[in-house]
Inverse folding.
């Protein structure tokens, strides 16, 4: 059962915690290369998982952002799917020189549905206790991710959705991390200035620097033993803010300063 958040204490500076999805809240149950190799073998294409893993990393690093400014959500969903279809095809071409599928569309459809479901993912250790504790402390919770629109259904499938007040994706903002615009959309939905929120993520550029550019404090999940450490880190940040010269209970002025699915 998810506790209802109590009203944030007026004296608290930090009033919301925003989480990245992949690499922070969620982890793949197996490497992308292993999944691609196993499912490709079922479709009659045999390639080493290690080669596919390496190719996937190169393709994703070189890919343009999956953002479609000004496109309605339904249209963006179709474009997101097409974007991933091209990335998967590029991965197999990069690994093998050609894509020898008799029915690539059927293969891709299977991958797309697989990564939309709970079977492909695990919830990060300590996530649920941390989320319960943060809600009980009266903090608002949100997800801000570069994942596509499948994430909302995935959070429901993993029984995490009820913890969060809002989920913000590139399709909502017409921008992707580390672009400040997507952070600003999330903050607007929460009704908070940046200095009232903390971002928890795993990528130095997309998550940590991006959040700080929007005026948020940032926690690197790689520095934590588990997500269960987040509430204590939030309290430490709260206490540190109270020691800043000139800080008042109403808080300071706002400052200025990959998390995608594998198919």
């Amino acid at each position: 059962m998810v506790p209802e958040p109590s009203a944030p204490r007026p004296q608290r500076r930090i009033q919301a915690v925003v989480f990245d999805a992949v690499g922070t809240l969620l982890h793949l149950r197996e490497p992308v290369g292993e999944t691609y190799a196993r499912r490709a073998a079922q479709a009659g294409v045999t390639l080493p998982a290690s080669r596919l893993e390496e190719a996937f990393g190169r393709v994703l690093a070189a890919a343009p952002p999956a953002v479609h400014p000004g496109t309605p959500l339904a249209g963006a969903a179709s474009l997101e799917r097409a974007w991933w279809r091209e990335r998967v095809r590029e991965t197999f071409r990069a690994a093998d020189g050609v894509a020898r599928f008799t029915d690539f569309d059927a293969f891709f459809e299977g991958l797309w549905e697989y990564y939309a479901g709970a079977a492909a993912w695990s919830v990060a250790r300590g996530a649920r206790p941390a989320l319960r504790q943060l809600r009980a402390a009266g903090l608002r919770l949100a997800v801000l991710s570069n994942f596509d629109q499948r994430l909302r259904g995935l959070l429901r499938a993993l029984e995490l959705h009820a913890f969060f007040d809002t989920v913000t994706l590139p399709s909502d903002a017409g921008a992707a991390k580390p672009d400040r615009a997507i952070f600003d959309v999330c903050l607007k939905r929460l009704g908070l200035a940046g200095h009232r929120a903390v971002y928890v993520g795993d990528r130095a550029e997309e998550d940590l620097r991006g959040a700080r550019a929007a005026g948020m404090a940032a926690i690197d999940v790689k520095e934590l033993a588990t997500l269960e450490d987040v509430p204590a880190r939030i309290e430490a940040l709260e206490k540190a803010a109270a020691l800043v010269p000139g800080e008042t209970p109403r808080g300071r002025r706002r400052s200025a300063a990959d998390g995608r699915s594998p198919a």
Remarks:
- The domain at 16-25+124-242 is CATH 3.40.50.1000 (Rossmann fold).
- The mean pLDDT is 90.
- The first strand starts at residue 16 and ends at 19.
